[in-house]
Amino acid sequence: MVRPIPLFAALLTLAIPLSLLAGRVWLDPSGETANTTLILAELRLPRALLAIILGAGLGAAGAAMQGYLRNPLADPGLFGIAPSAALGAVMAIHLGMAGTLLLPGFALAGAGGAMALLGLIAGRTASPANGIALFTLAGMMIASLAGALTALAISLAPNAFAMSSIVTWLMGALTDRSWDDVWLAAPLTLAGILVLWRAGRALDALTLGEAAARSLGVDPRRLMAIMVLGTGLTVGTGVAVAGIIGFVGLIVPHLVRPLTDRRPSSLIVPSALAGALLLLVADVVCRILPLVTELRLGIALSLIGAPFFLWLLLRMRRGLA
Question: pLDDT tens digit string along 57-71?
Fold first, then answer.
């Protein structure tokens, strides 16, 4: 069996130099391009690091969420945290408070509100089955409510410039991100990945069934709290600094799972590396496409993710036939 962690780590190591050199202006490794050092230090390097950080968080969250819900079609973006973070950011733009740290702060507040609401609604049951069902339904309700409020905020935008800024931001991108975004995203995302990684053994136990998980000492309420915290930190931080970038958490675990023993605990770290690789490569492709304006990263991932999701559905249908 191929070892996924060394494989994806090696691929990521190869992709990083490509990410630093690629763009509308390709940099000459010999340093003959004008302002090479400035472009690398202030534009390309923080953007590449941000792609790695956010991709790792989304990949780990997707693997953990699919293990927790025992559903390979689960995506962390479906459970209300990403739409709520987006709502917070939209409110910051709507109120004219989209400063360097204010916008991510509003988005993180939105993600925190969704996490608290998820815990409040679904965290009072001691039954794993009921808890997971409530978790899913509560997440869908929060996502729907946040989406409706975001649409309302767009329709009530004070001027066309604010409306354009909101719509553009919602598409998701790493354009013009700086070291401030890296310093904000790195600790929160890494903390989220660590929380999800520590839940791996409990997720392994859950695959054996609810009764077996309980007999092995899994506390359903604690596990749900861990999932809410870990997913909220990784997904909420990603939305806070880059807008909505979907489908990474859905796609990556399916690419990694055949390379592992399929236990959730052995999937989280490789999925984090694969998510980082996917987002880094997707960002490079967005930069080098010969378009008038740069393709937004969220749109690019949706163009990849939607057909992938359809393929999963068709494969599942064939399996049920």
Answer: 999 999 998 888 887
